[in-house]
Design goal:
Layout lengths: L2 H9 L8 E2 L5 E6 L2 E2 L7 E8 L2 E12 L2 H4 L11 E8 L14 E3 L6 H11 L18 H29 L4 H27 L3 H7 L3 H11 L11 H17 L19 H12 L5 H7 L3 H7 L11 E3 L2 E2 L9 H23 L4 H9 L7 H8 L7 H13 L10 H8 L3
Parallel strand pairs: 5-6, 6-7
Antiparallel strand pairs: 1-2, 2-4, 3-4, 4-5, 8-9
C-alpha cells in the first residue's frame, strides 16, 4: 500500500457510496476533493467537506497511518493548521492541531472496494517481471489522453533539465553566454566525457574564451589545454607542440589552473574522440560573438542545422589524435549530433530563457522537437517491443521522462496511463 493510491481514491471519488464517518462517529459528505498539491504542504488544497452537517473549506492531508502526522512533525508546522480532514488508511491514533484541537479523521480502508484494490495490486505486481507495469494494457489508453500526457511529460523533462541551467546562471551572475558554452561543452563531451567537459567548462572563466575567440590558435590552445588534451609527453607533432607553447603562455597570462585529469577515448568511435569534438567546439566559437542571442533567435531545425554547419580544423582532416596520421576525411557535425545539441542544450536553454523573459514558447518548442527524429536507445526499443511506437523526438524525450521518473519508480498513480487504467474500475 502506498499513499499515491490514497490520493487516487480521494481525487477520483472511488470511496463507496455508503455513509462515511470520522473515527468518533461524525458523518462526512465530500462536496469537493480540492486540488492536489505536489509540492510541500497539505496534499489537497481548497477541499469542501461537510462534517456533522457543518460545511468546511480548507485542506486535506493523507497518510497511511494517522500517527504519520507526528512522524512527519506536522503538529509543529503552521502550513497544516487549516487541515479540515485527515484521510488515512489506518486510524491508529488521535491527531491534534498546533492549537490542541482534534482533527477529524476518515479511515478509508473500509470504504474502498475489493475491485479497486485488486486492480491496483494487479498493476503493481507486474513490476518485477515486466519492462513497465502497464505493458499489457498500454494500448487500451485513450490516444488523445496519451498524446496530451506525452506533451506534458516533455515539458516536465525540460523543467528537470532546467535545474542545471538555473544553477549555472546563479553561479555566473546570469551570464547566458557562459551557460551556453558550458552546456555545449557537456553536449560535445557526449555520454562518455560529458560530465568531465561540463566540470572543466564550468571551471573556466568565460571571459577568457571571449578574449581569445578572435585568435584561432589561442582559442584552440586554450580549449585543448583546458580539456586535458595537451598532456601527452612523447608527442613531437609540430602542431601539438605549438599548442603546448601557446597554452603555457595563456596559463601564465590568465593564471589558469592546469587540468589534473584528461578525457576518455576508450570505447568511443573516432568521430566522437574528444580531440575532434573540441576542435569542432573551437570552430563554433572562432570569430563568433553573441552566439547565445543568435541561437535563441533561430526557429526551425533547418536554421539550426545551418548555424552548426561546422567541422573540425584542417589538421583533423588527417588525424583523430595528435601525431597519428589517418585517412583524410572532413569531420563535420552530423545532423544526428546536432539533433542531440537541440534536444539537450538549445531546447532547455530556450525554455529557461522564455521564462526569464516572461514569455511562453512551449508551443514553439513542441513544434521544433516534434520535427526531429526519435532517439534510438534501449528504453525506446523496449517501448516499441510492447507496441508503443515512437514517432519523433518529442515522444522519445517524453517516454524517457515517463520511464525514468514514473515507470521505474512505480509512480503509476501519478501517471495518466495508470490512473486511466484503474479508473475503468467502478
Amino acid at each position: 500500500m502506498r499513499e499515491d493510491l490514497l490520493y487516487f481514491i480521494w481525487k477520483h471519488n472511488k470511496l463507496s457510496t455508503k455513509a462515511l464517518f470520522t473515527g468518533v462517529g461524525e458523518t462526512i459528505v465530500i462536496r469537493s476533493p480540492g486540488t492536489q498539491n505536489r509540492l510541500a504542504g497539505p496534499d489537497f488544497f481548497n477541499a469542501k467537506v461537510e462534517i456533522d452537517g457543518q460545511l468546511w473549506a480548507g485542506n486535506v492531508e493523507m497518510h497511511l497511518k494517522s500517527s504519520d502526522w507526528y512522524a512527519h512533525h506536522h503538529e509543529n508546522d503552521d502550513n497544516y493548521n487549516n487541515v479540515i480532514l485527515h484521510v488515512v488508511w489506518e486510524d491508529d491514533i488521535a491527531v491534534f492541531r498546533k492549537d490542541g484541537s482534534q482533527i477529524p479523521t476518515l479511515e478509508i480502508q473500509h470504504y474502498v472496494s475489493d475491485q479497486i484494490l485488486d486492480g491496483y495490486h494487479s498493476l503493481m505486481q507486474n513490476s518485477s517481471s515486466s519492462f513497465i507495469n502497464c505493458e499489457r494494457d498500454l494500448k487500451a489508453v485513450d490516444s488523445f489522453k496519451m498524446e496530451n500526457w506525452l506533451h506534458r511529460l516533455f515539458i516536465e523533462r525540460l523543467e528537470n533539465k532546467s535545474q542545471l541551467i538555473q544553477g549555472l546562471l546563479k553561479k555566473s551572475n546570469n551570464d547566458w553566454e557562459s551557460v551556453l558554452f558550458i552546456m555545449l561543452a557537456k553536449n560535445f563531451g557526449s555520454k562518455v566525457n560529458g560530465t568531465y567537459f561540463l566540470e572543466r567548462a564550468a571551471a573556466l572563466d568565460f571571459s577568457i574564451v571571449r578574449k581569445t575567440s578572435n585568435e584561432p590558435l589561442q582559442l584552440e590552445a586554450l580549449l585543448f589545454g583546458h580539456f586535458g588534451l595537451l598532456g601527452v609527453e612523447d608527442c613531437k607533432d609540430l602542431y601539438f607542440l605549438q599548442l603546448q607553447i601557446e597554452y603555457d603562455y595563456i596559463c601564465r597570462k590568465f593564471n589558469l589552473d592546469r587540468p589534473l585529469s584528461k578525457p576518455d577515448f576508450f570505447g568511443l568511435r573516432p568521430m566522437n574522440f574528444p580531440t575532434i569534438r573540441v576542435s569542432q567546439l573551437v570552430n563554433l566559437y572562432v570569430g563568433t560573438h553573441n552566439l547565445f542571442s543568435t541561437l535563441m533567435a533561430l526557429k526551425g531545425k533547418e536554421e539550426i542545422y545551418g548555424a552548426f554547419e561546422i567541422s573540425a580544423g584542417l589538421y583533423w582532416e588527417e588525424h583523430y589524435t595528435f601525431g597519428k596520421v589517418s585517412k583524410k576525411r572532413e569531420k563535420l557535425l552530423s545532423k544526428k549530433f546536432i539533433d542531440l545539441i537541440i534536444i539537450n542544450t538549445l531546447l532547455p536553454l530556450k525554455f529557461c530563457y522564455a521564462k526569464h523573459l516572461g514569455k511562453d514558447w512551449n508551443e514553439d518548442l513542441i513544434a521544433l522537437v516534434s520535427d526531429l527524429a526519435k532517439e534510438d536507445n534501449s528504453i525506446i526499443k523496449n517501448f516499441a517491443a510492447i507496441g508503443s511506437k515512437t514517432q519523433n523526438a518529442l515522444e522519445s524525450q517524453a517516454k524517457l521522462e515517463l520511464y525514468t521518473n514514473y515507470c521505474s519508480k512505480n509512480k503509476c498513480m501519478q501517471c495518466v496511463v495508470g490512473t486511466q487504467l484503474l479508473n475503468r474500475i467502478t
